[in-house]
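ingest -> validate -> predict -> emit
validate: passed (alphabet ok, no gaps, 399 aa)
predict: started
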Amino acid sequence: MKNKWTLWAVMYFAAVCVSFSQLKFVTFIGALIGTMNLSNPGNIGYLMSVFAIAGIILSIPGGFILGKLGPKKLLMCLMVSLLLGNFIGAFAIESFQLMLVSRVLEGVAFAMIIMVGIVLISGWFAGTKIVGTAIGLFVTFPALAAGIILNVSTPISNALGMQSMWLIVGALVLLALILVAVVIPNPAPASDDKGGAPAEAEKPSLSEAASNVKIWFMAICQGCVAFVLFTYIPIYPRLFSDFYGLPPATANFYASLNGWFGIPFCVLAGVIIDKFKNAPLLIFISFICLAAVNFVATLLGPSTYVLHTLLVAIFTGLTISAVLVVAPIAAKRPSLIGYSIAIVNTIYYIGIFAGPITIEPHINSNNWQTGMNILAGVSVLGVAATLAFMMANKKQSAS
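emit:
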């Protein structure tokens, strides 16, 4: 078998390409609205929200498709869908309807990339002492992609035209597809017990995975952190420019820091989990701190702008990594990991979709503090879900 970290690197690159596709036009949305001549500029939001909708719709079917195709074939299908989406998008910058079609195709990859990645990485690193670190490193891909794309998309589009962003990302996706085909092997049949019985002897089912209450508590946690994080990603530029009055370039710089800061703290989460073996406590503490950070978002100043992006990155990064380490362990047996992650991802994508559309009306009416209070409340819900998980875990251990 090829080196585990080589396989991991290919999987990571493919995932980064998915996030590049998601965010590539965020910094020049205003110019894109102009080229499309939209009578209702608010419709541009659908080009972002369709990613979350795809996740909500396709996460559970994704678990079934994963069982039928296997992770490598499914990953290749996702890269093909992403490639087609970028190719169509490159020729759709004047057509909202065609661009929406391209975003749906890209959203298919977004909907299933985490599930495929966690299943593959959990298998590659099974039995090692660094599985948490590997997963923690993997879930930095949205942060890395955001940090890069928020800083390069505007200069590139200004120099080469908006169309260039779709063509460049498409070329990267094509490279990822080739690497997946050549480097990643088809996984061997899994075993669900120490006697080596093949997984096919007892086929996994969605109903069995869904009967595990601990998976639902982890899903709620992931939905809460997604609600918070994916609200901040699109509104951070407006928080710094509209609310705090910073120049657009400076506002974009501060917004990009959240992505860069998220990288080391997703990794740190994996290392902490591997070392101390108490991921639920890490999630619990992170949600408490995140509630406080949300509440003070309108009380910042020049000396605390960076601190806020840092703290949001720390506590969202720690939580996302920890949940994705805990969920496969909480699955009743290895063959249920795919469906279990699909359940977690469904609630995760609901959080991604619900966050911006819940908070945006308050921002648009300059009622920023109310929006931040809602984010704090969602974080408190995460605290409650984590406590419920810990109690269920303790009850199971005692029985």
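Confidence is low (pLDDT under 50) at residues 190-201.
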